[in-house]
């Protein structure tokens, strides 16, 4: 299985917004997000605007390519998204703002491959922020960061605006 990062064009934003609902569904377990009357999770759409208006923001779809045995065609499937940016409080550092792997692909190395692809494409200083309440994400990021950068990272707890978070910081 090969994982590619495909830049998200502005006309593909509706696809990202549909995936974002699945992301919010998973985050609801940590943040107790309410469903609105239409059965979706409310969020400020402006949260995503910067990914097409600010050059330091980069949106990507994760695409999995499966080469089925005995079949010549390679099947591609959308597997999630990664939204990265320069961190506003430290513009010299890349920040994974939002990261989502569809449930079907969890535990198959898709997220770790996507992380490795991001780091190869954007060498430099990085950080990953994880909500304290999001224990599954914390376990994933501890494993993924260790696999991709070895022991060469810093793990700390700090406030990010008004939320306590785990921070993983490293340079590649």
UniProtKB/TrEMBL annotation:
Domain of life: Bacteria
Keywords for the protein's UniProt record, in alphabetical order: Acyltransferase, Transferase
EC number: 2.3.1.-
UniProt GO molecular function: acyltransferase activity
UniProt cross-references to PROSITE patterns, sorted A to Z: GNAT (PS51186)
Domain N-acetyltransferase: 3-169
Pfam families, alphabetized: Acetyltransf_1
Listed name of the protein: GNAT family N-acetyltransferase
Originating organism: Photobacterium atrarenae
Lineage: Bacteria, Pseudomonadati, Pseudomonadota, Gammaproteobacteria, Vibrionales
